[in-house]
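Quick note —
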Amino acid sequence: MRCFLNRGAVPGLLVAGILVGPSGLGLVDNVGEIGDFAEFGVVLLLFVIAIELKPSRLWLMRRLLFGLGTLQACCGIRIILPAKRLRMMLKGVLRGVSNMYRYPVFA
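Predicted structure written out below.
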């Protein structure tokens, strides 16, 4: 039992949200009415995660985090946008970057 209770605040908040929500005990029926309150809870949860994260640990995980973060962003963009629109946007970005080096705006 001690191993289970010694987890920290983040897993406890997640388990409490699952238990209280409509999929758990059903204490909250109308999810639409408490949407703003739930968004505030997510902000607080992210704040707690940021407080518990040590900068030294984040620095050690930088390659994994930035690599997987970039992969997640690319996959998300690929799923949302059709291929033709994605190619057009990529061409626009590449043209903009190439023109930026030919004609520097902030020189």
